[in-house]
């Protein structure tokens, strides 16, 4: 019987290296880098591509913090192209300095590439001026010695009304009247820290009608003209004032209203900024930014009035553009409206929540998306009136999506009542709000842990955590600390 010699077994390395003494197995293997592309770009790699769970429709925002996949998101695309949102709106919450304006700028830039015009209704810092200029938009400066915005100026709306007929013309004229009435009432509210009475609003409405009859479409009136109408006491105004035929009684009824309107004309707290002819008209065929950064932070009432006036003027212009498009007189244009520093307006006086709510009622089917931005939900719930707090909270509840940056732990119970957040999502937001540490090696403060991190929430769906990194082309237009650069 032949004898055979058994060959020695050859050792083979494992996935982590050679096993055994001296083998050098590693305990951790870095994952292979991953990229993502369209079927045209990576067709030669098929079938080794794999799908991801995040939507690929909309503006590319950043990378999913869990999977590393690209996250595309904006309220207009998610509403019109995917049906993920009930309405094209979003509410952005987060502590200062974590990038709230940055993520909105990324959306505005991407939507501009899609043909959706960004409209920035009040830029206080400024955060958006450089971006709007870079993409060929219009920048309108407002403030003491910088520019004026006449709150009785309907802008493009009055020219649009002359081109319309029938019901379309009537609806637009009614919208012009309503927005001017709301704006004058809002300025009175800011001055008094309380809304005008029902009788005073009725007097204002009648006085605006008389004002239109006096001036017609050829001359735009200013607040001084409105005050003069009230002083002249025409019959149409006296009848709604219920003066019972007594001119002395009429003077007593209108005295407080006249005093408030007169305070808007001179060099008072609002500086006459809204009582003089509009310095520069808004154009609706390009992106627009109202730059109010020249108003000092100490002028709280003036800032609130400027924001509210920009919103009123801008929303009115958008309504006029839609009316012309519906009549086939202008192409249909889509807009992305940004309302930053919402808390400044809401806390300027009781009843301003109703004013903001009335201004922002836009038809969702007209392709208009808007973003409201504030620091925390406490900004909305700190209002002194319970009714105002409930309505302000409704801004978040009605938003199509909510984007959260880092938030303090005390915010979680209140936020969870409005947005469905799981415990891991709450911990994530709290961790992102951790203050930055001191970087001894660099000799400066390190970046906050939550800088550029956001959680996208749509209804009860699980949130999408992502990180936003700016490209080299975006860094310059996103530099909000230019005065500190050497």
Automatic annotation (TrEMBL):
Biased composition (Basic and acidic residues): 1-10
Gene3D superfamilies attached to this UniProt entry: P-loop containing nucleotide triphosphate hydrolases (3.40.50.300)
Name assigned to this protein: ATP/GTP-binding protein
Organism superkingdom: Bacteria
Region span, Disordered: 1-23
SUPFAM superfamilies for the chain: P-loop containing nucleoside triphosphate hydrolases (SSF52540)
Residue ranges that the Swiss-Prot or TrEMBL entry lists as coiled coil: none
């Amino acid at each position: 019987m032949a004898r055979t010699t058994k060959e020695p077994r050859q050792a083979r390395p494992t996935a982590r290296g050679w096993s055994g003494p001296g083998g050098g197995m590693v305990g951790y293997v870095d994952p292979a880098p991953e990229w993502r592309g369209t079927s045209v770009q990576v067709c030669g790699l098929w079938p080794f591509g794999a799908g991801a769970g995040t939507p690929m429709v909309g503006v590319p925002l950043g990378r999913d913090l869990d999977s590393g996949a690209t996250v595309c998101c904006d309220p207009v695309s998610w509403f019109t192209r995917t049906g993920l949102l009930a309405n094209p709106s979003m509410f952005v919450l987060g502590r200062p300095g974590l990038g709230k304006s940055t993520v909105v700028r990324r959306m505005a830039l991407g939507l501009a590439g899609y043909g959706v015009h960004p409209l920035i209704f009040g830029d206080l810092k400024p955060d958006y001026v450089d971006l709007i200029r870079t993409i060929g938009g219009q920048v309108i400066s407002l403030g003491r010695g910088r520019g004026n915005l006449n709150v009785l100026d309907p802008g493009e709306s009055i020219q649009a009304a002359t081109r319309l007929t029938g019901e379309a013309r009537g609806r637009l004229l009614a919208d012009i009247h309503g927005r001017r009435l709301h704006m004058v009432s809002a300025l009175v509210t800011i001055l008094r820290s309380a809304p005008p009475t029902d009788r005073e609003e009725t007097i204002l409405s009648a006085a605006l009608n008389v004002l239109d009859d006096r001036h017609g479409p050829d001359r735009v009136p200013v607040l001084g003209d409105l005050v003069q109408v009230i002083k002249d006491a025409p019959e149409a105004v006296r009848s709604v004032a219920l003066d019972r035929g007594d001119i002395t009684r009429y003077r007593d009824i209108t005295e407080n209203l006249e005093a408030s309107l007169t305070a808007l004309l001179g060099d008072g707290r609002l500086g006459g900024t809204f009582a003089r002819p509009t310095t520069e008209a808004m154009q609706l065929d390009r992106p627009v930014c109202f730059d109010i950064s020249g108003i000092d932070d100490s002028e709280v009432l003036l800032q609130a009035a400027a924001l509210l006036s920009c919103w009123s003027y801008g929303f009115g212009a958008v309504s006029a553009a839609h009316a012309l498009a519906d009549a086939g007189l202008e192409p249909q244009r889509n807009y992305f409206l940004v309302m930053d520093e919402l808390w400044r307006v809401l806390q300027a006086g009781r009843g301003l929540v109703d004013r903001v709510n009335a201004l922002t009622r836009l038809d969702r089917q007209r392709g208009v998306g808007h973003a409201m931005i504030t620091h925390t939900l406490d900004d909305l719930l700190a209002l002194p009136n319970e009714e105002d707090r409930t309505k302000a909270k409704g801004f978040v509840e009605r938003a199509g999506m909510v984007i959260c940056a880092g938030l303090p732990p005390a915010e979680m119970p209140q936020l969870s009542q409005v947005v469905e957040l799981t415990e891991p999502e709450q911990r994530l937001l709290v961790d992102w709000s951790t203050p930055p540490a001191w970087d001894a090696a660099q000799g400066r403060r390190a970046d906050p842990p939550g800088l550029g991190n956001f959680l996208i929430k749509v209804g009860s769906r699980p949130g999408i955590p992502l990180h936003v990194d700016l490209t080299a082309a975006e860094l310059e237009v996103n530099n909000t600390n230019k005065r500190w650069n050497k």
